[in-house]
Amino acid sequence: MTSEHTAELAARAAEQHVVVIGGGIGGLVAARECAKVGMRVTLLEAADALGGSIRSAELDGVVVDTGAESFATRGGHVRALVDELGLSDAVVAPGGGGAWLHGIPDAPDAPLPVGGILGIPANPFQDDVRRIIGWRGAWRAYLDRLRPPLTIGHERSLGRLVASRMGARVRDRLVAPVTAGVYSAHPDDVDTDIAAPGLNAALTRVGSLTGAVAALRLEQQEKAAGRPGSAVLGLAGGMTRLVDALRTDLEKYDAEVRTGVRATGLTRDGKTWTVAIDGETDAAPEPLVATGVIVATAEPPARALLEEHVAGLGEPAPAPEIEIVTLLLAAPELDIAPRGSGVLTVPGSRAAKALTHSSAKWRWVREAAVGRHVVRVSFGTQGEPAATSSLDDDAAARLALDEASAMLGVALRPEQLVAAHRSRFVQAQPSSLIGASERRDAVRQAVQQVPGLAVVGAWVAGTGLAQVIPDAVAEGDRLRHALLWR
Fold first, then answer.
1. What is the pTM of this model?
2. Which of 322, 348, 347, 331 is closest to 408 using CA atoms?
3. What domains, with CATH codes, occur in the chain?
């Protein structure tokens, strides 16, 4: 590109004003994509703090993650952003051993078996598998080896696939705790081809589901050869360091970041957008005039802003309400990490769906806690309100302590609770649920028909930073290209 073209592009960029509505990770990343080419960017966040599902709190002097605590390494997108922002030295891998299962009918708690995919075992007679499903379940699962294979794509539902091939015990005792913990969903509602890509094809090729799991595991190991590492990573000091680094980077590019400001409406006049806002002061703030708008909020407020301008959004997707209660405990009996890094529950067995022993899982948390322990208890799943939803904060903390005591196998006492924090989320529908991809694609295509408009965030990208970040980069790039070359 010649110096004349570069100067022309810079001049075009300077003429643009992009307003980003929402200061979660999707909004921050999309704003950065526009700001770094010289566009004027204003980011609005209704809450007092940025980050969305990435949150932290201080419990008796210990700063801990109270929302997302890690990121998936698949695709390398999150790690690339972390490195770009100068946080490479803060990246840490989890420890503390694997997860356990709690609430197994007629059986004690046991470690989650190794060598499976989403809880589906490659060998039902493996000791750690049989301990959970029993001999009856193991022999029923073995029938999978004797049944004819399915054709590719014959069974879209993961739960129905597992139950038909290996029986209800494998689905309910092994797969359901994993899908509830990861997707807040029953396995019957999980799309096989999205949650476990290649599993249906491997089943057809190999002839059994257990064989398909073994084949996929082998393929994964071969691909990972020479690339050792954890499937998830975290940041020492907490994931809010990523939020802080993004804000600093935006300010370096002269972007304006305004918290406590809510966008209340959008109007469009030709190539110009007007964003009505509320907040900051008692007086009505002046609306913002923009050439481009990126809506980066959760689904309900996003739809309220978009519906007047976008046809074909479809019906809103059901989204589970999730609550995480974080406990700081003076409980030396947890020093031995009795349940490794955490616990998944068999659905229906407990009020909580999962527990993370954060001070066992993350060395930086253990060092910050100075002899105490940090435990996170998660409530709520698809179609069921969180058991804490109707409780006040003190009652929610007491329930979380009771659940933690049962799930960790340790009699924790009320006087051992030093401090507690409660976070509430409306979780976007996971991308692995049946029909979710089609709904997201329809929303994205409808929005992209409107010039100067983009939408990012988990409700259109899928849950998890590994999906939200590359999607926000792509949408930010699409919008800035459209603005610069229209």
1. 0.92
2. 331
3. 3-53+239-317+431-485 (3.50.50.60), 116-224 (1.10.3110.10), 320-426 (3.90.660.20)
